[in-house]
Amino acid sequence: MTIDPHADRAMYRQLSDLLGAGIRSGKYQPGMPIPSEAMLMERHGVARNTVRLAMEVLRDQGLVVTRHGRGTFVRTDEDESAQNIA
Length: 86
Prior knowledge:
Layout: H1 11-25, H2 37-44, H3 48-60, E1 64-67, E2 71-74, H4 77-85
Antiparallel strand pairs: 1-2
Helix pairs in contact: 1-3, 2-3
């Protein structure tokens, strides 16, 4: 799937759908890092804000966690347990 700037669906939603499908299919395993903002920008031809909005959607869906200074990772069972404690 590619990002279509002319589609009716916002580009950040297309990107979050694409990454979410990768997580659900096992392409990105629990604990694995999601590619960096720069990599996603280059790979999909989108702006930094598009990537950030897509990551926000994935966080809201509970699929990823962002660790300050380290990156964004596929959520693990341990991440879920830590959130339930907090």
